[in-house]
Automatic annotation (TrEMBL):
This protein's record includes keyword Signal: yes
Record-linked SUPFAM superfamilies: RCC1/BLIP-II
Species of the source: Pendulispora albinea
Keyword 4Fe-4S listed: no
UniProt-recorded name of the protein: BNR repeat domain protein
Signal peptide residue numbers: 1-19
Pfam family, one: RCC1_2
Lineage of origin: Bacteria, Pseudomonadati, Myxococcota, Myxococcia, Myxococcales
Keywords: Signal
Length: 394
């Protein structure tokens, strides 16, 4: 079995829908599924169509087409944004209180944060000593509160230990754990602080203890800790300056998580370095290798020990650890090369975390697979290991 100790155990997000090929979609692999109950929040119209999602710990959240947010799972400490810091009475999806005009979301075990359409940020959650960006270490915010991200925000990304904002000027600000990425900053930082190393970024990817950026010329550069080669070049153990990934062709997108990094290349191929490189070799290393059998990706989610990619035809391919069925191929067998997720033909967005994976379909509905012991998929299942896609009820 692979060790998942560093990544938060996942919840999943969903809009009630149908996904696989039969009318029995929520049977779930290995007897893991059952038809879900009606959703818990009463969405309607564009409020039922997901456009963004993020997964972490005991809460998952989606941003809807109408700019509202919905969260679900057995969340503690205000992670669902309902104004109640106690554990929720059930896992069903419910609307986030006082959240409108949202465009994107990132959540981890300490905070949930949404980027609004005007480039501002709101966060909620307890903070667990690391803060939620509002300046409070403990107690936090049970409903969304404004966060000063130090500039207009283009995207929110992060890891299980920090939240970062890619700014419109090509810089970045981060909060929570800062030691590996900005040693001069408070650690943890309870409010966003500028990361001086990041300049000229068009995309930002944040791993467990490293950062990668993409610039306008298609060059990917990384810095931080490098124990598994996640920086894409050889160094003793860490680098405090951005350096280009060795021999990586021009890239169009970049992603990272924990000890892994990946880039979609302009020629349509997907390259990964660090751990879980997807080329059939289980060994980690700094060399960027081409992922076997996956090309023309439209969305990629890099997890601690498994990765998933959506390709142009709407299918989803995953590789890496699979103890909890998070690869979605109907088994619990680890895979060093990509395997096709069962029954998905119209995915647009994918998200992963420690033990599960979720996608948004073209119609805005969401499906998840992997570990669901306490209703992390918005509904409880007979078997906590769900090895094929499961529709979570909105």
């Amino acid at each position: 079995m692979m060790n998942f100790s560093r990544i938060a155990f996942l919840s999943a997000l969903v809009l009630g829908a149908i996904a696989c090929s039969s009318s029995d979609d929520n049977k779930g692999g290995g007897g893991g599924g059952q038809n879900p109950p009606p959703g818990g929040g009463g969405c309607s119209g564009d409020g039922c169509i997901a456009v963004a999602l993020s997964l972490a710990g005991d809460v998952s959240c989606a941003i809807m087409k109408d700019g509202t947010g919905r969260c679900w799972g057995p969340a503690y400490t205000g992670g669902r944004g309902r104004g109640d810091k106690e554990k929720s009475s059930g896992p069903e999806p419910m609307a986030v209180t006082e959240l409108t005009a949202a465009a994107d979301i990132f959540i981890n075990n300490n905070a949930s944060c949404a980027r609004l359409r005007d480039g501002t940020v709101k966060c909620w959650g307890d903070g667990n000593g690391s803060g939620n960006g509002t300046g409070e270490a403990e107690g936090g915010k049970a409903v969304p509160a404004a966060v000063n991200a130090t500039g207009s925000v283009k995207a929110l990304v992060g890891s299980d230990s920090r939240v970062c904002a890619l700014l419109q000027d090509g810089g970045a600000s981060c909060w929570q754990q800062m030691l590996a990425i900005a040693p001069a900053a408070p650690d943890p930082s309870l409010v966003p602080v500028k990361v001086p190393t990041v300049v000229g970024a068009t995309e930002l990817a944040v791993g467990g203890d490293h950062i990668c950026i993409l610039n306008a010329s298609g060059v990917v550069s990384c810095y931080g800790f490098n124990k598994s080669g996640q920086l894409g070049y050889v160094t003793d153990s860490a680098s405090d300056e951005l350096k280009p990934v060795t021999d990586l062709p021009a890239a169009a997108h970049v992603w990272a998580s924990d000890d892994s990094s990946c880039a979609a290349l302009k020629d349509g191929k997907l390259a990964c370095w660090g751990s879980n490189r997807g080329d059939g070799n289980a060994e980690a290393g700094p060399e960027a290798v081409i992922v076997t059998g996956v090309a023309n990706v439209t969305s990629v989610a890099v997890g601690g020990e498994h990765t998933c990619a959506v390709v142009q035809d709407g299918s989803v391919w995953c590789w890496g650890a699979n103890e909890h069925g998070q690869l979605g191929d109907g088994t619990t067998t680890d895979q060093a090369k990509p395997v096709k997720v069962a029954g998905i033909t119209d995915a647009t967005v994918v998200a992963v975390s420690k033990e599960a994976s979720c996608i948004i379909r073209k119609d805005g509905k969401v499906l998840c697979w992997g570990s669901n012991p306490a209703g992390q998929f918005g509904a409880r299942t007979e078997n906590p290991t769900v090895t094929t896609p499961f529709v979570v009820p909105l």
